[in-house]
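To illustrate the input format used throughout this study, we show a single complete record. The first block contains the structure-token representation of the backbone; no residue identities are included at this stage. The design step must infer an amino acid for every position from geometry alone.
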């Protein structure tokens, strides 16, 4: 597309043209300026279109050339040319895979550069550290080679300096960086920590199960928060044995308990933020799908043992035949007025809340927060004004751990969350010396701090220890204090009549006015009552 055409032509699927099929825009040659490339894309993505276009960036396998596609993808996102309908415009729709200049990309680059400086080897690259020296990223400080912190997350400079290497070294280094980037994305997705803006629920069929329930109605605006239970029919994506066996990076393990098999792939190393300990992570693949979980190396060796690929073949293929072409999934969402209950939802999830949208089979369009099945009972109980006091140990732990509330037992005994030496524990707070003696024989963790007896539930089996406590001291009430905006009483605004100002004024006596005015003339009305000024006379 010429520069003249990039500012004049309209090639979008407009409502007034005959061909309203979705456009496929192939960028065979990227412009040197991101602004001019966006002008090109604007020919097929314009106001009044029936459907947005699909963009396809064409470039060679040269690693350094990814610099141009990454910059253009980032600029498209920042300018909001392709968004997912939320405030995070940098999530550039179907160009996400090209955008390396993101938080995840910077994190992956830091992992790659740090690993190379510690001696990590890279396939196809004879001396990775020398490649970084040739790129000018390594600095010598007091005889010690290191990469400045500002360079470890500078994606544009890394991709720009990458062009200075020979093709083989360039591609090897970029492939290793890009695989680390993709691995970071997969890990964050599996852990539910990737905030990907608004997500579309993709399914062959979406139906509302049962009648939607109104959980909350704002007293001032009348806006309602509605709970929907959706039944989805989704196509399955099984992991085939032939693909796993042909891969050189996958190994098969057998469960020590039930004899089932999994496919394991080594992924990134992680650092424990509290202890600083480095540990290796492994991606777990089952016949039902890839990357279904991530395990530490110690946990993997404890639960599984490595086996030859051929030993898992018969079992794996048999499990493949059991997987249907489609599967039914249940999704719970809250839609409508979410701001009044947002604080409560954050108490249930410490990670980012997942915003989803979908259209049901009957044409109903829904946008809301996706909630897990474990939250449904707590949410219903909370918005039902908690008519039932938690009775069992599991219910008490749910109130204390998830809702960050305290539970009051009889005889002034309290169960609450407390922080001790950096750990969040469940504490039993007695009120008398007799209760202290009783709690000592219930298997609790007893700690004396500043002369004060403190009792905590053991982390191994907190429910069993709590059951002994509840047997002597049943729950009496809870302290609901985490959602004050839903508890505050609201007053109905009433229309007030305007005040008649003269009726509010108190006229002074004639003697008082005379004493203040001296020889000044005092105005009186027709009844002889003194006036404050000439306004009242009029």
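Output of the design step:
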């Amino acid at each position: 597309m010429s520069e003249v055409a990039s500012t004049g032509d309209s090639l979008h699927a407009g409502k007034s043209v005959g061909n309203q099929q979705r456009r496929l825009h192939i960028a065979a040659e990227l412009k040197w300026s991101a602004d001019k490339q966006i002008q090109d894309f604007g020919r097929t993505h314009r106001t009044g279109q029936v459907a947005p276009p699909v963009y396809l960036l064409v470039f060679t396998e040269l690693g350094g050339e990814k610099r141009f596609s990454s910059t253009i993808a980032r600029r498209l996102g920042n300018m909001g040319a392709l968004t997912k309908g939320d405030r995070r415009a940098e999530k550039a729709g179907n160009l996400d895979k090209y955008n390396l200049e993101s938080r995840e990309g910077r994190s992956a680059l830091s992992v790659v550069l740090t690993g190379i400086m510690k001696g990590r080897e890279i396939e196809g690259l004879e001396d990775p550290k020398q490649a970084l020296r040739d790129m000018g990223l390594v600095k010598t400080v007091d005889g010690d080679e290191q990469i400045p912190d500002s360079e470890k997350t500078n994606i544009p400079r890394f991709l720009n300096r990458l062009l200075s290497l020979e093709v083989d070294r360039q591609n090897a280094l970029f492939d290793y960086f890009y695989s680390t980037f993709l691995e970071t994305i997969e890990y964050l997705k599996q852990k539910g920590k990737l905030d990907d803006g608004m997500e579309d629920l993709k399914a062959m069929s979406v139906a509302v199960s049962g009648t939607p329930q109104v959980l909350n109605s704002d007293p001032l605006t009348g806006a309602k928060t509605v709970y929907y239970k959706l039944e989805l029919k989704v196509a399955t994506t099984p992991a085939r044995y032939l693909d796993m066996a042909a891969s050189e990076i996958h190994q098969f393990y057998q469960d020590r308990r039930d004899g089932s098999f999994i496919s394991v792939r080594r992924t990134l190393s992680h650092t424990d933020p509290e202890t600083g300990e480095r540990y290796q992570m492994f991606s777990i693949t089952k016949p039902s799908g890839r990357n279904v979980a991530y395990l530490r190396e110690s946990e993997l060796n404890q639960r599984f043992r490595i086996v030859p690929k051929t030993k898992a073949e018969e079992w794996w293929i048999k499990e493949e035949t059991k997987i249907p072409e489609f599967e039914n999934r249940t999704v719970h969402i809250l839609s409508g007025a979410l701001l009044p209950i947002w604080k409560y939802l954050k108490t249930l999830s410490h990670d980012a809340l997942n915003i989803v949208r979908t259209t049901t089979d009957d044409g109903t369009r829904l946008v809301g927060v996706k909630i897990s099945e474990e939250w449904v009972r707590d949410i219903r109980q909370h918005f039902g004004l908690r008519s039932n006091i938690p009775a069992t140990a599991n219910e008490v732990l749910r109130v204390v751990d998830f809702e960050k509330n305290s539970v009051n037992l009889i005889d002034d005994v309290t169960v609450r969350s407390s922080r001790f030496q950096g750990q969040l524990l469940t504490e039993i707070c007695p009120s008398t010396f007799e209760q202290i003696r009783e709690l000592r024989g219930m298997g609790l963790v007893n700690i004396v701090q500043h002369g004060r007896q403190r009792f905590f539930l053991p982390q191994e089996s907190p429910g069993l220890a709590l059951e002994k406590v509840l047997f002597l001291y049943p729950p009496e009430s809870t302290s609901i204090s985490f959602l004050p905006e839903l508890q505050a009483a609201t007053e109905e605004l009433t229309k007030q009549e305007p005040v008649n100002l003269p009726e509010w004024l108190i006229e002074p006596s004639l003697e008082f006015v005379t004493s203040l005015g001296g020889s000044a003339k005092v105005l009186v009305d027709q009844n002889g009552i003194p006036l404050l000024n000439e306004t009242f006379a009029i």
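Structural context for interpreting the output: The longest helix spans residues 167-190. Confidence is low (pLDDT under 50) at residues 81-94, 481-495, 534-538.
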